[in-house]
DNA sequence: AACCCGTGGGT
DNA sequence: TACCCAAGGGT
């Protein structure tokens, strides 16, 4: 009988091997993005990170340039009405991010003397800045050694080290431990590692149709070596869209954005036939501070 | 912890 | 076409 070769799963690659493969790849393939310019201010980095929350790079670039030209520093933005931030947000989506960025600019102006703070702990205290964004701004703008765990990093580590096709539905303690374990000890190298793994996930180790033939980790990737097994973990419940409040709110805000002044209530009615839902969404937009009621109708907050 | 919050491009 | 996905955060 043929000697049974136990199909032992490959061990996760050592951190040093990951670094040796990913860092040179990044040096050659990194995109040139304006917020990666060494001269980009911490404020520019913060604005980019908030805009990039759930929004692709391609749609962010133009709006980011307009924002930074118009508001080069946090006090510049804080000096204007929040509604200006919402209007300038354009169609990036999740316009509450614009509101929170304006609130963050105000907090930076009042509590940090107009300077974006450098530590993830201080950054985390700003509106709209969560675990990921605080780590990213600390690392990319200030060279702080921080665990930057976005959807790209989680996917790359899940595949290369975990041998599974994707990360867990929500961030787990095990993923944090894994990411901390592979983070280079030297702060400067750790910052480059963070952006390099993110870039690999964005360009090569993509969610669908990963380009393993072009991946520097392919020879040591547990998922690739195992033959790209299908993901069999817990699945995230699909998000509905048609008929939801999100869709209704989006149309209402879009109607105000498309005009230059207050929009009369009568002009809001046609965008959503269900009057009850429309009224509820309008009330929630007022509650959120995304719109306000003025003599002429509804407008962005002045 | 599960759910809510926009938008547009790729497949 | 319908669905998936994108540098998440707040509650």
Automatic annotation (TrEMBL):
Its EC number is 3.2.2.31. It catalyses: Hydrolyzes free adenine bases from 7,8-dihydro-8-oxoguanine:adenine mismatched double-stranded DNA, leaving an apurinic site. Pfam families: EndIII_4Fe-2S, HHH, HhH-GPD. It is an enzyme of class 3 (hydrolase). It comes from the Bacteria. Its cofactor is [4Fe-4S] cluster. The keyword Metal-binding applies. One of its GO terms (molecular function) is adenine/guanine mispair binding. Residues 51-203 form the HhH-GPD domain. InterPro entries: DNA_glycosylase, Endonuclease-III-like_CS2, Endonuclease3_FeS-loop_motif, Endouclease-III_FeS-bd_BS, HhH-GPD_domain, HhH_base_excis_C, HhH_motif, MIG/MutY. Keywords: 4Fe-4S, DNA damage, DNA repair, Glycosidase, Hydrolase, Iron, Iron-sulfur, Metal-binding. GO terms for biological process: base-excision repair; mismatch repair. Belongs to the Nth/MutY family. This is Adenine DNA glycosylase.
């Amino acid at each position: 009988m043929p000697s049974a070769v136990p199909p032992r799963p490959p061990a996760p690659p050592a951190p040093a091997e990951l670094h040796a493969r990913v860092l040179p790849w990044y040096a050659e393939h990194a995109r040139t993005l304006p917020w990666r310019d060494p001269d980009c201010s911490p404020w520019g980095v913060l604005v980019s990170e908030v805009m990039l929350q759930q929004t692709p790079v391609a749609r962010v670039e133009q709006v980011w340039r307009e924002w930074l030209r118009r508001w080069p520093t946090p006090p510049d933005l804080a000096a204007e009405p929040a509604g200006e931030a919402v209007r300038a947000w354009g169609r990036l989506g999740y316009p509450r991010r614009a509101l929170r960025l304006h609130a963050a600019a105000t907090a930076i102006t009042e509590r940090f003397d107009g300077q974006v703070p450098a530590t993830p702990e201080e950054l985390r205290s700003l509106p709209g800045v969560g675990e990921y964004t605080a780590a990213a701004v600390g690392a990319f703008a200030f060279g702080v050694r921080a665990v930057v765990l976005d959807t790209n990093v989680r996917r790359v580590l899940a595949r290369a080290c975990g041998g599974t096709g994707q990360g867990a539905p929500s961030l787990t303690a095990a993923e944090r431990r894994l990411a901390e374990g592979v983070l280079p000890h030297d702060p400067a190298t750790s910052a480059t590692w963070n952006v390099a793994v993110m870039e690999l996930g964005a360009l090569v180790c993509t969610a669908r149709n990963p380009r393993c033939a072009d991946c520097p980790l392919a020879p040591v990737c547990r998922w690739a070596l195992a033959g790209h097994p299908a993901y069999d973990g817990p699945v995230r419940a699909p998000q509905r869209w048609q008929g939801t409040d999100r869709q209704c709110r989006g149309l209402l805000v879009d109607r105000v954005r498309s005009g230059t002044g207050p929009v009369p209530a009568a002009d809001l009615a046609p965008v959503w036939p269900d009057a009850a839902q429309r009224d509820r969404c309008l009330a929630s937009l007022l509650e959120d501070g995304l719109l306000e009621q003025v003599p002429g109708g509804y407008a962005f907050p002045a």
